[in-house]
TrEMBL record:
<dbReference type="GO" id="GO:0005737">
    <property type="term" value="C:cytoplasm"/>
</dbReference>
<keyword id="KW-0479">Metal-binding</keyword>
<feature type="domain" description="Alcohol dehydrogenase-like N-terminal">
    <location>
        <begin position="35"/>
        <end position="164"/>
    </location>
</feature>
<feature type="domain" description="Alcohol dehydrogenase-like C-terminal">
    <location>
        <begin position="206"/>
        <end position="337"/>
    </location>
</feature>
<dbReference type="InterPro" id="IPR013154">
    <property type="entry name" value="ADH-like_N"/>
</dbReference>
<comment type="similarity">
    <text>Belongs to the zinc-containing alcohol dehydrogenase family.</text>
</comment>
<comment type="subunit">
    <text>Homodimer.</text>
</comment>
<dbReference type="Pfam" id="PF00107">
    <property type="entry name" value="ADH_zinc_N"/>
</dbReference>
<keyword id="KW-0862">Zinc</keyword>
<keyword id="KW-0560">Oxidoreductase</keyword>
<dbReference type="InterPro" id="IPR002328">
    <property type="entry name" value="ADH_Zn_CS"/>
</dbReference>
<dbReference type="InterPro" id="IPR013149">
    <property type="entry name" value="ADH-like_C"/>
</dbReference>
<dbReference type="GO" id="GO:0004022">
    <property type="term" value="F:alcohol dehydrogenase (NAD+) activity"/>
</dbReference>
<protein>
    <recommendedName>
        <fullName>Alcohol dehydrogenase 1</fullName>
        <ecNumber>1.1.1.1</ecNumber>
    </recommendedName>
</protein>
<keyword id="KW-0520">NAD</keyword>
<dbReference type="InterPro" id="IPR011032">
    <property type="entry name" value="GroES-like_sf"/>
</dbReference>
<dbReference type="InterPro" id="IPR036291">
    <property type="entry name" value="NAD(P)-bd_dom_sf"/>
</dbReference>
Length: 382
């Protein structure tokens, strides 16, 4: 692949020209990587709710034409000036956030919120020069989350690219670059349930099921799934969920229902919906004295959270997490290594419910819009 280094590459990309309209497979031109950038050949990518949310452009600033996609795996094609820890041929996961390794957050053992590269949904160009690397039909195409993986090739900042074991099955580990790691890390890195403990998971989409998977791996004996959609309950059993609560089936707040089920409350709760009502329930359903609630879901911009201070004074703990507290370049390679070596009983195949060729990428959107399945893998070479 190195014979294309330093040159403009022509490749196929799924371009979103208008909000909510089907993506169009177009020939695009991709400029070479600039300083501290990496050009990647994408082999597998998957569709996340975040892609759909910004494609629909409901409630946020629209930016079109744009190339979406941020869960993916591929191989480095070439590197820009100043890139020393990646080389052509390396197997990588591009990530929607980053780790510059220089800022206070990156140097802290407690944070993964890089000052330079933390998620910025409004940024549509590259950091180094404020320009897009993509163009088609004579006009620039906007980037998305610094990754734009719905393209045969893409350019990303080196700080948002995790080098992983080349033996890893890329059609599975590609889902670790966003939602699955977010839920899994919320459990194993933040909630940290003890063996034999009880955990409530609010929201049984892909992120919530990843949180349940993390609770199962940690040895929790009771995992209570909370969701308004009862059709999700059967599938959730595969991820270790042992009991189910549908708030619509009760005439009292769901936190009271859970407290009655668990003799005062669960040991840990993980909220994965973004609903403020669910956040309050998740916090108030943990046991006093030792209960820990972890918020994962992203609320609406104007939402606020209200609970009585006595809930905190009674020694309940409320935490938030971003990307499961994983540092992309430091921790993702370790997570992949544990998966490859079977040191962690993480069953990624359970999350992958559909697979389509790149030319059929719009089918992946159809599946998600209909609420069918969890993750759809898109094979770039097909």
């Amino acid at each position: 692949m190195s014979n294309t280094a330093g040159q403009v590459i022509k490749c196929k990309a799924a371009v979103s020209w208008e909000a909510g309209k089907p993506l169009v497979i177009e020939e695009v031109e991709l400029a070479p990587p600039q300083a501290n950038e990496v050009r990647i050949k994408i082999l597998f990518t998957s569709l996340c709710h975040t892609d759909v949310y910004f494609w629909e452009a409901k409630g946020q600033k629209p930016a079109f034409p744009r190339i979406f996609g941020h869960e993916a795996a591929g191989v480095v094609e070439s590197v820009g000036e100043g890139v020393t820890d990646l080389k052509p041929g390396d197997t990588v996961l591009p990530v929607f956030t980053g780790e510059c390794k220089e800022c206070r957050h990156c140097k802290s053992e407690e944070s993964n919120m890089c000052d330079l590269l933390r998620i910025n949904t409004d940024r549509t160009v590259m950091l180094s020069d404020g320009k897009s690397r993509f163009s088609a039909k004579g006009k620039p195409i906007y980037h998305f989350l610094g990754t734009s993986t719905f393209s045969e090739y893409t350019v990303a900042h080196v700080g948002s690219v995790a080098k992983i074991n080349p033996a890893a099955p890329l059609d599975k580990v590609c889902v670790l670059s966003c939602g699955i790691s977010t839920g899994l890390g919320a459990a194993i890195n933040v909630a940290k349930p003890k063996k034999g403990s009880s955990v409530a998971v609010f929201g049984l989409g892909a992120v919530g099921l990843a949180a349940a998977e993390g609770a199962r791996i940690s040895g929790a004996s009771r995992i209570i799934g909370v969701d308004l959609n009862a059709s999700r309950f059967e599938q959730a059993k595969k991820f270790g969920v042992t009991e189910f609560v549908n708030p619509k089936d009760h005439d009292k707040p769901v936190q009271e229902v859970i407290a009655e089920m668990t003799d005062g409350g669960v040991d840990r709760s993980i909220e994965c919906t973004g609903s403020v009502a669910a956040m309050i329930s998740a916090f108030e359903c943990v046991h006093d004295g030792w209960g820990v609630a972890v918020l994962v879901g992203v609320p609406n911009r104007d939402d606020s959270f209200k609970t009585h201070p006595i809930n905190l004074l009674n020694e309940r703990t409320l935490k938030g997490t971003f990307f499961g507290n994983f540092k992309p370049r430091t921790d993702l390679p370790r997570l992949v290594e544990k998966y490859v070596n079977k040191e962690l009983d993480l069953q990624l195949e359970k999350f992958i419910t559909h697979e389509v060729s790149f030319s059929d990428i719009n089918k992946a959107f159809d599946y998600m819009l209909k609420g069918e399945g969890l993750r759809c893998i898109i094979r770039m070479g097909a």
